[in-house]
Amino acid sequence: MGKYTFTVPGYFGENSVRNEDDNKRVETVFGWWVKDGTVTLGLGIGWELYPGSELGASPVSSGTYAQLPLFFDLRIYGSRRKTCPFLLLQAGHSFSIQPFNIPRTSVSSTTVLLAQPVPLNGGELVGGLGLLSKLSDEVGFQFSVAYDHKMLRYELNFEDSSRGPIQRAYGVRFNALRISAGLVF
Predict the structure, then answer these.
(1) Which of 16, 126, 140, 175 is surrounded by the most beta carbons within 10 Å?
(2) Percentage above 90 pLDDT, the chain
């Protein structure tokens, strides 16, 4: 979970907006020890919900949407002690599983933004620090703080009275501080 800021470049100018709602994220990582108890490499999958997002001061309306992140997960542990710090790196792709909908909107005297669902898909890169506390030889508890950066793409369909249908591609940059806790077994 974390507060997030996003920037929308393109047709309507560039807008950076801080969203005051927390996004919700649940994830699991299937990891394997690859170096003598100090390095893990894994594959992760998650579900992420963005409630009531606004994409700047544009005709793109408010709306809740959800993402399915799939990613590689690398953790480098500082030691093999019962409690130890670790470095977290994740990289992957985030798929839209619940696009938000925008209404039909006039953007000029000749151009109309058509009503449409807007799926956001793109890359994700995460870096952070954490602390692992081993509760037993089989189970541990971890806490981490990470910076989450996403670059998601989407397309909008317009109708122009003089040029006909127009499709334009855009990018949205998301930046968030992610605080998470979980069990390791």
Answers:
(1) 126
(2) 39
User: Which of 3-7, 144-148, 180-184 tops mean pLDDT?
Assistant: 144-148
Say if residues 96 and 65 touch (Cβ distance below 8 Å).
yes
Q: Which two tokens stand for residue 59?
A: 């005709």
Which helix H or strand E contains 33, and what residues bound it?
strand 15-35
Residue where the block lists tokens 């998470």 = 180
DSSP3 helix / strand / coil % (the chain, rounded to 5) = 0, 75, 25
CA atoms within 13 A on the CB side of 166: 15
The pLDDT of residue 60:
46
Q: What is the CATH number of the domain that holds 175?
A: 2.40.160
